[in-house]
Structure formats: C-alpha cells, structure tokens
Design a protein that fits this description.
Elements lengths: L2 H25 L1 H27 L6 H29 L2
Length: 92
C-alpha cells in the first residue's frame, strides 16, 4: 500500500460518510439537521486531522506509522457511523 492509496482512501471513505449524512439531512430537514450537523463537523475534523498527519509523518518506521493512521481512520469512522446510526434509528 502506498501513500497515494492511503490519501485516496481518506478522501473516499470520509467523503462517502459525509454524503450519507447529507442525504439523511436532505430527507429529514427538520429532524436531522440539528442532530447530524455535529457528526458532519466531526467527520470534517477527522479528515483535516488525517490529512495533516499524512503530510507531516513522524520520524521512524513509516510503514507502521501509515498502518496506524489507516487503523485510526477506520476506527474513528466506525464510531461516527455508530453515532449516525443512533440518530437515524431514533428518527421516525
């Protein structure tokens, strides 16, 4: 896995998550906006944080560093997905 692939994964996965949030807000404008907007803000913060870490790697073993970043991205996206699922399941 090279650096370009990791950057593309960050762009794609977080972008798709934000698209899912936007779709929910579009379909539920009165109910979804106030609950989903903070989740979108967290996703944008995650994107910015990961892009910064990718562009400013720590000294040492780069392969392990990038593997940890990929793991962090997936874990944090999973947590955001659970938050979004909780909001969606409470909406009627």
């Amino acid at each position: 896995m090279n650096l370009r692939d990791i950057k593309k994964d960050i762009e794609y996965l977080i972008g798709e998550f934000i698209d899912d949030c936007s779709l929910f807000i579009t379909l539920n404008p009165k109910k979804g906006t106030e609950k989903v907007s903070p989740i979108v803000d967290e996703a944008v913060d995650l994107y910015n944080d990961l892009k910064y870490k990718i562009n400013h790697p720590a000294e040492g073993a780069r392969k392990a560093y990038y593997d940890n970043l990929r793991r962090e991205m997936l874990e944090r996206l999973d947590a955001l997905s659970e938050k979004l699922s909780a909001v969606i399941s409470t909406e009627e």
